[in-house]
Amino acid sequence: MAIAQLKDVKKVYPLGKTEVHALKGVSFEIEKGDFVSIAGPSGSGKSTILNLLGCIDTASSGQVVINGIETSSLNDKQITNLRHEVLGFIFQSFNLIPVLSVFENVEFPLLLGNNPMSKRETKEWVDYLIDAVGLADWSTHKPNELSGGQRQRVAIARALATKPSIVMADEPTANLDSVTSGAIIDLMKRMNRELETTFIFSTHDQDIVDIADHVIRLQDGLIIKDYKTNGHVSVEPQVAKVGA
Known about the structure:
Blueprint: E1 2-15, E2 18-31, E3 35-39, H1 46-53, E4 61-66, E5 69-70, H2 76-86, E6 87-90, H3 102-107, H4 119-132, H5 148-160, E7 166-170, H6 178-195, E8 198-203, H7 206-211, E9 214-219, E10 222-228, E11 233-235
Helix pairs in contact: 4-5, 5-6
């Protein structure tokens, strides 16, 4: 079942007296539980797609469908609810709250909405996530007491706190050394398997591309390859339509 879809999506940004066509009619489907790499050179449209899927930006035309919901029809409150209930985000710069401990940073998203768990269940769940990312001994520490890799682990745990259907990450290993990067990739893949969370990455990191089970390659705002790692090509290379 498709958990995320783009249907002939175009995105145009005004730039002075000209226009930048970031996406030129992109279509794809992502299934529940996929571990997806959206890959391509700078300027190919990777971050634009992530922003559209995360309801941070809107398409110029076409449809963005998340969890069966066509997002262009939503008002601001509905979009906020969709982000909180369905989506999790892992940021390249971590975006942790410096005055909060590891535990408090992971717990924070649960304090923003209608958390169905009791106080005891919430603590058990947050403790589980912190332990799952290997930081059980660091739960009372503040972000400035952690290494870059540890901060990224906190960001992963926080992204999973609301039990989202989809977690999106924009270049999650860009600021990490190769050893730490490998450990973070393995951790996210394990969370993908254990929690059946769909992960969608915008990345230059070939290690993420290699471990992904669904790869979407972009070039100049178009998909040039869309395949599962069993070799099945689900989408032929897309061609910009006349007038795009």
